[in-house]
Amino acid sequence: MNPAALRRVDAEELARLLPMPRAVRAVEAALRAGLDPEADIPRTVHEVAAGQLLLMPSANSSYAGVKIAGVAPGNPGRGQPRIIASYLLMDAETLRPAALIDGSALTLLRTPAVSAVAVDHLAVPAAERLVVFGAGPQARGHVEAVRAVRPLSWVGVAARSPRQAAELVEHCREAGLDAEPVSPEAVATADVVACCTTSRTPLFPASAVASHAVVVAVGSHEPTAREVDTELVATATVVVEARAAALREAGDLLIPLRSGDIGPDRIAGNLAELVRGAVDTGAVGPKLFKSVGMSWQDLVVGAAAVERAGAGAAP
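The structure corresponding to this sequence follows.
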């Protein structure tokens, strides 16, 4: 293989090739075109000394790809990201490598983009108030993603670190949004709530959530961790990326399932069904989108970026 044929896409080029609105459109288009999240290849999780090693392969008619991600809980204390990843995109017919993409940057793009697709189909049209839990890169990405699909004007940041909360608030203000640090009780004023934390226990009571609000929970892919409580899962319209993935990995659902407080039928639909209009979103009460992160998302967004590069995307 000619090494020059392997395109390398770093974080800066990925952001240039595929700004958030384009990433959101790429995810939506793939689902509308017939992508079935239930058919995706399950991720493999290996416990290693530093944390977890995740292998996430996926394939469609044009491309195959695999993300290798390391989840090292001790990294933030070393001044390094908790999740570090690389993504290899290949031609589907020959499996010849086509691009090596910064997998960490890809994760930070595709996860909020997927959330934005859900928010676009679940939130009230005039949604303008967002409360985000967490102040890390995913929290920042979710501010950008929600803003891509709704007329966002105010952001409340609920985070354990006052310094990080202040930094995200300042970032939002520089982007032209009103923003301030808030307590968890601020969910009562939110149209959209984005949970982007490593918390293993619920961040707020369901009773605090406005009846029209959408809650997005993306922080965990572990069966024993959750960001929302049993009451919210039991009363909200629940949408997941894929039933199979949620019932393997989503502690937010699995914990109340194991306790017998809900049944598998509590899931109203998956993301493809939502996009195609097959989920009843008219029920009274809040909406919940639970995401664990899936391999097809990396493939769709990574391929869209590489195709934009091949088409000579403007700087």
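The mean pLDDT is 95.
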